[in-house]
Amino acid sequence: MLTLGMPSAFIDYLAKLQVQPELGASKRIDALEAALVKYPQIDMPVVHRFTPGLYMREIHMPAGSLCTSKIHKTEHPFVVLSGRCSVWSEGNGVEHICAPFVGITKPGSRRVLYIHEDTVWITFHVTDKTSISDIEDDIIVPHYDHLGLSQDELSALRVIQHVTDKEVISTAPEILKIS
């Protein structure tokens, strides 16, 4: 099991991306995802809710998980309903989020998250659509080529890698080539 001190060292490495943009944050996250996708996935259930004109996407992330977000196309609000996590994103660096928390996702955002406590994160999207695949086409940038997965593997991949393996997380700074 992970100790909380070890992931904070990893988050510190990610923070260097903020002050050294020449390292190419997107490429480093791609490399992290490509390495992590080789490990067993952790189930992170997603609940989809609809009201007239609004789609709500609720993800349940277990403590000890390391994960990356999708690349977002739209500006939209989010709520961290419960839990605690450290979140790195380009332009914001590391944010330590404790529920309850309300934020805004900007277009092009991509995050790396370490989940300290079981966390429920909800995003809200204006749409009249009710097909999840149609909605995802509107709100998420497709970005999986760097993973080298078959079409079947891509279809089965709901959320990019989530791991709790100490060895994998401890090698993440090396994968990101950040010193």
Helix/sheet category? alpha+beta
Largest sheet: 7 strands, antiparallel
What name goes with the CATH superfamily? Jelly Rolls
**Low-pLDDT residue spans:** 1-6, 158-179
End-to-end Cα distance, whole Å, is: 25 Å
The beta-strand count equals 9
CATH-scheme architecture = Sandwich
Order of helices and strands: HHEEEEEEEEHEHH
Number of helices: 5
* Rg, Å, rounded: 16 Å
Number of domains: 1
CATH topology: Jelly Rolls
Tell me, rounded to a whole number, the average pLDDT.
75
> Which CATH C-level class is it?
Mainly Beta
Which word captures the global form? globular
User: Fraction of residues in helices?
Assistant: 25-40%
DSSP strand (E) fraction? 25-35%
Description:
The chain contains 5 helices and 9 strands. The protein is globular, with a radius of gyration of 16 Å. It starts with a helix and ends with a helix. The protein is about 30% helix and about 35% strand. It has one domain: Jelly Rolls. α1 (about 5-20) runs parallel beside α5 (about 165-175). With about 180 residues, it is an alpha+beta fold. Strands 1, 2, 3, 5, 6, 7 and 8 form a 7-stranded antiparallel β-sheet that branches. Strands 4-9 form a two-stranded antiparallel sheet. Residues about 1-5 and about 160-179 have low confidence and may be disordered. β5 (about 75-90) and β6 (about 95-100) form a beta hairpin.
